[in-house]
Amino acid sequence: MHPVTAEVTERIVxxxxxxxxxYLERMAAARAAGPGRGKLSCANxxxxxxxxxxxxxxxxRDPSAPNVAIVSAYNDMLSAHQPLERFxxxxxxxxxxxxxxxxxxxxxxxxxxxxxxxxxxxxLSLFSRDVIAMSTAVALTHDAFDAALMLGICDKIVxxxxxxxxxxxxxxxxxxxxxxxxxxxxxxxxxxxxALYAEGKATREELLTSEMKSYHGPGTCTxxxxxxxxxxxxxxxxxxxxxxxxxxxxxxxxxxxxxxxPKRAVAIRDGTNDYTPFxxxxxxxxxxxxxxxxxxxxxxxxxxxxxxxxxxxxxxxxTWEDFDDLSRVTPLIARVYPNGSEDVNAFHAAGGxxxxxxxxxxxxxxxxxxxxxxxxGLRRYQTEPFLDGxxxxxxxxxxxxxxxxxxxxxxxxxxxxxxxxxxxGGLGRAVIxxxxxxxxxxxxxxxxxxxxxxxxxxxxHKRGELNRDFVAVVRFQGPRANGMPELHxxxxxxxxxxxxxxxxxxxxxxxxxxxxxxxxxxIHVTPEAEEGGPLAYVRDGDIIRLDAHAGxxxxxxxxxxxxxxxxxxxxxxxxxxxxxxxxxxxxxAGRADDGACTLFEAA
Length: 603
Fold this sequence. Notes:
Blueprint: H1 3-15, H2 17-32, H3 42-48, H4 54-60, E1 67-72, H5 87-97, E2 101-107, H6 113-116, H7 125-140, E3 147-151, H8 157-166, E4 173-175, H9 187-198, H10 204-214, H11 226-236, H12 252-267, H13 278-281, H14 284-297, H15 303-313, H16 320-327, H17 344-350, H18 352-362, E5 371-372, E6 375-376, E7 383-388, E8 391-396, E9 420-425, E10 428-433, E11 443-451, H19 454-462, E12 470-474, H20 479-482, H21 491-499, E13 504-508, E14 521-526, E15 543-547, E16 552-555, H22 559-564, H23 583-588
Parallel strand pairs: 1-2, 1-3, 3-4, 11-12, 12-13, 13-14
Antiparallel strand pairs: 5-6, 7-8, 9-10, 10-14, 11-15, 15-16
Helix pairs in contact: 1-2, 5-12, 7-8, 8-15, 9-10, 9-21, 11-14
């Protein structure tokens, strides 16, 4: 192992000693209650399969017959989740073929950040993760299952399913993805039209035409944002069948992988020699592997929130310092839009996750000695699935990149460090994604322009007031203020000013999309302005220094002078679009550096 990876892992183990032991003790107690329906009374038992087909009922009369739960985030609004409509029948048929049954245990909500971006509904987005976790628990709490399959792909959905599944960690759990849509208009062309529209040089009709050529069919959006970062992480934690992340939907190979999931889940249920519960797969080492994958591929900054909450659900305490230290030694070996010009389909064709896994293991940057749903050892994930005469088989993935503009070996990377860094200083703690930012933009010092919401910044842009060097401070965007919406709609406007040659950066207690790129952005600032953090005291003209190399986010105002000012007050909480229903979650939300979660007590 790389000595830094080993040291970070060891301190996570030590930091998590009590919480992890408590979690494993609870999972052992749940297992002791007995597997599947065997523990239910006759009345409970009958209710559990009253509406099942007759053949399934006969199987279910045997309390020892395995039963697999399906928890799905299917809806028609998300292109990534629309293909999930076809999965339950495939899963049920595959289960019957081996003498088992599968039941659709429950659905979870799934909102599309692409639809709500810049809209009031985005204020529900982060908290939907916790709602999904609770919905997963509701689905599994019938306690009539021997294993569970999680059907979900996008931004908050996989983290929510993961947190919910962790509460039932005595069960084997396999995540079943849907895969990316086919490639549309090039990412460069999409970005070009967006920039023209932001400058008023393209019409809305031209922008819509471009966007519809980008997002044009079923499957995950093909840029490397949070959704596809989710799929990478499920491979790195060993919760996917190997190589299943980026196989396109509605293809024979995808259907074969879907059918293989319930068969494998039954094979690793309690009572078999290969019993592999979720709690054995997800541990300190597999969490470090997920972080390593995120850094090596330039993944989404949203996971500096989600991974902390996900890890904590399994008793593992992860911190931003862990991300930062691992980033300093984990090379960036992938360039996928917005960190490069090509999309995840090109990434997959160039070698994909099998290549990334091999590189990280060979460099000692990921732990090989972990348990996975495919069996012991992460080396299984340097293989790829194929159909051989209609039969699903796995073969070794390529050991060499098939396109060095997209994937490179760890000893000849795009950058010597990973894509995420911790910033600290007079404005608090924040994270920055560096992998898509040009080196000359990673350090700047400029006067602040303060905005209380993203609409005010966009209005200033339209009035032509941003033609200067500035650091945009967009505050009261944290979890307690308004649910911590993504501010991705600011990227085109800020990018236009950057392209004009101005020094431009963003500092906010909100989030940026996993698709955000070239504008340096210090995000997730904590303490947030709503809690009286330093952002609440910043004024127009204050000089702010952002230095991603040194990990500094500083304001050139003495601390005593800054905190002696009268702090700004948050705008009134928004109502409508369901936001009023989430008021209790805003009050309960933890700090950004603790996952911004409503489900756990403060660390």
